[in-house]
Amino acid sequence: MIREGTLVTKEPGLHTIFQGEEHNYVRCVIADLVDPERHFECRVLDETDIAIGIGEHIKLEVLKVVTERHSGVVRFDCHLIHTE
């Protein structure tokens, strides 16, 4: 699955355990390409920071979808798709 849109926020330099291993990640919120009112919370794994600024286009490959039971928030664990 691909998530693509405009970068709304980013928080670099974070760490997590994913599939039993420690990974760097950047927490991002992106506005959907087709419906900009829809926002997605994503963790871009294996990146300390990303060279994409707020308001710029971002394309992510979804590795895992996580729903937090208590809050109902859906989060996407992703890898950055580098486009040139």
Automatic annotation (TrEMBL):
Name the UniProt record assigns to this protein: TRAM domain-containing protein
Superkingdom to which the source organism belongs: Bacteria
